[in-house]
């Protein structure tokens, strides 16, 4: 019961953080028809970042589930606590980085690219942790 609640809490935080990728209603509506183009308009670049984040987040969740299934008791609880703290940390760091373009059209793109980078880094961390743990 507690694990389901905490998993829902983590997923909720991920959904809330991804809200920043398209920050207003008109951008959300436009994103439904915008195609990724890394050298295109800001909206097209944001769509690329949103697509990349979705893939990165799915991979992180797969690796996280693999790891958490190997843990029990206090170790599992500590991982859940660490992941909640990491999500908060990631969002704050990405908000900080996005402040380089505060109020500008690039703010959301910088935020989204930060999410992608940090999520990929977290996945690599978990993959390395699992490899080390299983080699002991």
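^ Assign residues to that structure.
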């Amino acid at each position: 019961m507690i694990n389901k609640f905490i998993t829902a809490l983590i997923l909720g935080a991920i959904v809330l953080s991804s809200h920043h990728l398209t920050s207003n209603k008109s951008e959300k509506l436009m994103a439904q028809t915008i195609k990724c183009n890394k050298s295109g308009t800001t909206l097209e670049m944001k769509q690329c970042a949103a697509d990349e984040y979705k893939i990165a987040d799915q991979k992180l969740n797969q690796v996280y589930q693999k790891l958490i299934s190997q843990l029990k008791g206090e170790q599992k609880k500590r991982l859940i606590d660490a992941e909640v703290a990491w999500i908060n940390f990631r969002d704050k760091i990405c908000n900080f980085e996005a402040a380089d373009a505060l109020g500008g059209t690039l703010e959301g793109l910088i935020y989204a690219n930060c999410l992608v980078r940090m999520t990929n880094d977290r996945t690599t961390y978990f993959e390395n942790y699992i490899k080390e743990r299983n080699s002991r």
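Residues 99 and 107 are 7 Å apart (CA to CA).
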